[in-house]
Every structure is written in C-alpha cells, then in structure tokens.
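Work package 3, deliverable 3.1, input record:
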Amino acid sequence: MKFRSRIALAAVFAMMLAGCSVEVYEEGAFAGGGPGASGGEAVQQDDNTGTISIAGAATGTDGEAIQNVIDEGVNANADYTATYTGSDSFEQNIVIQIRGGTPPDLGFYPQPGAVVEQAEQGNLVALEDMGFEIADLEARFGKYLISLGEFDGKHYGMPDTVNFKSAVWYNKPAFDEAGYEIPETWDDMMALSQQIIDDGTAESPWCIGTGSEGATGWPATDWTEDIVLRQAGTDAYDNWVTGDLKFDSPEIKGALETFGEVLFTDGFVYGGHENISSTDFRDAPDPMFDDPPKCLLHRQATFIPAFFPEGLVPFEDYDFFKFPTIDGNDGVLMAGGLIAAFSNRPEIADFLETYTGEEAQCLYGKQEGSTSISANVNVGQDCYDNELIGQASVSLIEALQNEVARFDASDLMPPAVGSGEFWNGMNNYTNDGPDNLDSVVQDIDAAFPAPGEEPAPTESGSGS
Amino acid sequence: MSHVMTTDPAGPTSTDDHDDAWQPTGPTRGSGLVVFILSGVAAVAVPALLYLSLNSSFNFMQNRFPAVVTGLVAILIAVVGVFLLYTLVDYALKALPGTIGDRVRPFAWCGPALVILSIYLVYPAVNTVQLSFLDANSQNYVGWANYQYVFSDDAMLRSLRNTLLWIFIVPVAAVAIGLGFAVLADKLRRLESAAKSMIFLPMAISFIGAGIVWRFVYAFRIEGGGQIGILNAIKVGLGGAPVDWLRIGGWNNILLMVIMVWLQTGFAMVILSSAIKGVPEDILEAARIDGANEVQLFWRVVVPNIMSSIVVVFTTMVIGVLKVFDIVWVMTGGRDGTEVIAERMIRNMFTFRDFGRGAAVAVFMFLAVIPIMIINVRRFREEEGLR
C-alpha cells in the first residue's frame, strides 16, 4: 500500500508541475496592471542617463546588423550607448513590458499597426514632443511613411529600414537563352507566362509557395497587395487598409481575379494551385534552379536569395525585375517597421535624428547578409554593397518620392484580419480554386472588428 | 487567508496540538489580537523585505554593473536573503513572551508562501476574469460578448471539438499502449530496462522539439521534387503520389495526436509498470492456483489492483492535453481545421491582440480543468485515507 501511494504522490507531483505550466501562460499574459494601469508614462527627464534601451523583433544576422549600425553610426560619436535587444517574441514581450510599466526606451516595431495602437493608449511620445519638425521628416522619408504612425494629429512612428517586396525573380540563363524580354506590364507578363509553356522552356512559368507555419498564406497576400496597388490605385489601397473598402468590392475582387489568372490558368503554377499552401515559401524558388528548370519566375521580397540553392551568383544565375505595371499604374510594395519612443529624453531624440540620418543609414548597405533598405530618400544606391539591393533601393526611393510606395496592407490591417483571416482566405483561395471567391472575401470582411468595437483607429493610418 | 487567521489561532477551541509545549502561566486568551496581527505581519514580512531588497539592489546596480553580476547578486540575495530572513523571523518569534511565538510561528513559515502564491496565482486569475469582460484593449466593458465569441466563432467551435477529440483519444491511446508495454516488458527477462528506455526516451523531448522531429515525418514536396518526409518517401518509393498529410481534413488531427501519444506513452508506461510490480505476488499466486490464465489474471487481478494509478495517469494526461499548444502551433498553426483551445487563446491574445477574447478563452480553459483536478484530488485523498 505504501508503495502505491508513493506512486500516486509522484503522479500528483507531475500533475502539479503540469498545473504550474498553465499558470506560466497566464502569468506571462496578464502580469502587470489591470485595465488602464498602463505604464510607460512619458516623463520628461533632462539629464542624460547615458544609455538607451531598444527592443525589436529582428534577431540573428538582422539583429546584429542593427547593433552594428547603431555602434558605428551613432554610439561611436555620442555621449550615450544605445543597445539593441532582439527577440522572436518581441510583439508579445513588449505588450507585457508596457503593461508592467517597464517598456524599453525605444521599440523597433516590425508592423506600424501596433504603434498606432500604443499611441491610442497614450504610451508613446510623439515625434513633435521630442522636437522634430514633421516637414523635415517628410522630406527625409516621403509623406506616406510618416503618415503611418499618425494618431490624433501627432506622429508617433519614426520610419525604420524597409524591405522591397515588389520583385519578380527569374532564372537568368534560361531567360537569356530563350531570348525573353523583361515584361513591362501585367499583360506582357501573362503573355510571357503562356510563351514559356508554349516553348517548353520550363515545366511551368511560376513557382509559388505560401507555406510559413502559423503565418501560411502571407506570400499570397503580398501578391494581392501588389495587384491592388496597381489595378485599383493608391487611394483604393489606403481605403482597403482601413476597412472602408471591403474585400467584397469590385476593386479587391477584381484584383483577386487578376491574381487568379496566374493561380488558376492551367499549367501556370508549378505543382498546381492546390499545392501552393503546402509548399514552404523558403523552398518555393528551388525548382527554378533545377536542371532543366521547373519554373522561371518567382515573386518575392528582396530577402529571398538567402534561401536560393547555394552557389548561385546574382546577375549571372538570377536577377529580378520590378513587378510590372497594371493599366499603366506603377507602385512599390514594402514592408518594415516604425520606431516608437516610450520615454522622452534628449539623448533619445538625438539618437533618432542620428540613426535615421544619411550617414548611419548608409551603413546598412555594408552589413553582410542584410537586405534592409533605408527609408531615408537621401541614401544613395552606392551605399549598398549588394547591387541587387542597390537597384531595389532606387525603385523604392523613386516610388516614395512619387507617392506610389505603399506598406504591406496585411501588416496595417487589424491583426484579426491582417494576421488571421486574410491569410486563411488566401489559403482557401489557392487551395480550392476560383469558384469560392465570394465566400473567401465575405469571410475576410467578417473578421474586421465591428465598428465601435475598436473605437479610436479612425483613418489616421492612411496617407495621401 | 484572513478568515483562517481569525478563526484558527484565536478561537476558543484552539486546535493547537502541542499542548505539552504550553506554558500554563502564559497569557493565552487576551493575546488573541496580538497573535492575529503578528501572524499577518510575519506572513507579509519575508516577501515584502525580500522584494524591497531585490528591488533596491536592482535599481542601484542596473546600468552600473554588467547584467551577469546583477543577476548573480539577485540570486544571492534571493537564496541567502530568504534563509537569513526566516532565521531572523524565527529568532524574533522565540523572543516573544509566552506562547505567542508558538502560535504565530505556523503563519511565519507558510504565510510567505501563501502571500507569494496569491500574488502570482490568485491575482492573475482574478485579473484574467476581469479582462475577459473587457474589450480588445481592456478599455470598455463588453459584458458576455467575449464568451459569446468563445461559443459561436467557427474557429473556436472547431477548437472545442478538436480539444474534446484530443481529450478522448490521446490519454486512452497513451494509457493503453503504455499499459501494454508495461505488462509485456514485465515479462521480459533481460532487456526490460532497455525496452522501457526506448519507450521512455521521447519523454525527454520538448513538445516543440517533437514538433520539429515530426515535421520531417510528415513533410511534403510537390511530386517530382525529392521527398524529405519519411512517410512521403515511403509512399513515393512504393509508387504512390506524395500527400500533404497535415492538410487532409480530420486525419490531420489524428496525425497530430500521434505525436502527443508518442511523447506521453513513456510516462504512462513507467508509472503503470511500477504499479504492476507493486501488485502483491501472493494475490497473483492465489489466482494462478485457482486456475486463472494470464489474460484473466491481467484483466481481473492486475488491472483492478492498479486502477488508481491508471486513473491518476489518465487524469494527468487529460490536463496536459487540455493545454496542448506547442505541437499544433509548430506543425499546422491551427490551419486546416486543427485548432485547439490553447492555440486559440494565444492566437487571440497575442496575434490578434484581443485581450478580452484571449482572456475569455483562458477562463474557459481554466474552468474546464477544474472538474478533472477535483477528481484527481479526491482520488489522492482516498489513497491517503487508505494509508
């Protein structure tokens, strides 16, 4: 009997351990103040504390690049030391830190939506209150990027580096051998796709993969956004982001139908549209470099060469062209973040000024493996050691100046849509084919928070 | 906690059981209030002093010393400090006149634990319930809307269905397989521990690790590409077409449960194996003499004898399964109808940044665990009673 009860004791102990881990979740999630007990009160302090703490989502090479740029571009000539700490769970941690009253000095937010959300709750310091002139910043970054962090007439987000998304990668040797030309328009690109099939240059023209664990579907949202931006225009794009233009509208459905030309034309997608969400986005471009190539074209942001098979040489084995125009409309889709300040000290304003200045930003081009492009329009192409990125930066800056550059819409939409139902909808669309488009757009629309449910976000997020 | 204090030490029917230690001359009755106050002070003193010393040392050391040094000092203060504080409190209690010290002592020793527990457990739980009635940003009261969401949203309903399936299938499968192995391994003459180690090995792998291992089992590549997943490699090797296993509706849930069973069988086996060895040999002997065969012996003698262990293992697993999150998150992220409750909680809370809904899911999950906890505790008490 004694023996058995000891077993029971052991089991109960194990059970208690299991019970504890429930509480770890809850603790992590809810520790800190109750509603309204938000910390991070913007207190003006005049003495230089000598340190600036920065939290962000970039880790690994990207995180090192950030710290390198800060060290070389800012810390080297300043009477303070800024330290960047990257975390994969930045977006969870920062919420906990804010609620607990211990936010970092600066947050390098990967998505602008969260910045506006914190501004609404009164946790951030406005750029105006730190002494910045918005007109100067608009000259530095273009109006659009500055407008992203706007709330209630003030601006809370300093643009950070961005990624260039509107790139179509191609297998250069196969392209050159067949004598294909870079398509200038969407129709040219569709004609080229058909020609690739007719010529038998590759099994299919396109490689598309949207698999990305919990975020599966996002590459398809990028496709959609690139098309909406061109086919429906920037105004429609901005209204779409805020939810004023429904997914179930002629503009957005039209864009999805245009996307469908690639997805559902027989033979256009390697492996067929049913397998798009089953193919990891990192593996998706690989068949482009098989011998013979299984596809020739792949649309993805400028980070993707890092996932190409090893040993390929840029400009020799592969190259990219900008996503073509639709109905004569040009545009550039980008992703990136905003810097938000949780405390107001002179050295923090100085840091922001120096860090986003030309000299420091130019250093991003020297970081090994970095594909970040400075959003500062004065940073020249020659800053970038990686010529591919240099080329992308030219397109990006041109688009910023022409006011046709737009932020990844899914990053700007309420997360229940942009990080939820939009992805799901794209998966359903690519899996099931064109017939269910109506239910796809209706489901996504239904995920938008009901008006009044989220009171404040107004139209402050949209620019122009 | 406070009602314990008011009734217990000061009440007329004092439950103090060490009467021998009582000094008959001591002022026993009039000191009730003093004991009560001192008990409260003693319970709060250790955590409060510890907090203050940790906080002030952190404030002093932060940014002045390397983080490692600050961390080490914090550990030193926490470990040595707690020891010193307790010693100090105990010393102070001894110095108190009469029996007051003896009556305050229990609260000085378990009070701090209760105080800390309520800060880290009770407060967050209460706070969660509060959050679940507020909107996404915890600004406005929304009534039962978040709970309505829990029981009406399609994905939530799927997660409830799936979690129910997990609760039924995983513990049953893990206990059945574990019990089978335990019985069979028991019959092995030499390789018993080696065989058991093999089954127990996955227990050492974290859920996340297991998820990554099993991704390579289920991995899928478009036909024609090299299959890196073992299941598809076998299927293609036998002339079939590759299948994306984790997208087959319904089956994908079962395939995820397989991972959990793989992880948990070892736990069931170890506990049940020792329970089987605890079945008295004379009972088995008697049954054999009565003419029972091995199968009858198992079902009629062994199983009833180890029933309490089976129940404990089973309920422990049900609790674990209720919280299953990592496996689903890593493998499918809840796509294609594989949502589970805990995954929905994290998704609503952090991905969708809707604290109200996230909290409502958490509260529901918390309530769902309670009946199983009660069963477990009751079972444990019965065991204790038998001793």
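The longest helix of chain A spans residues 2-30.
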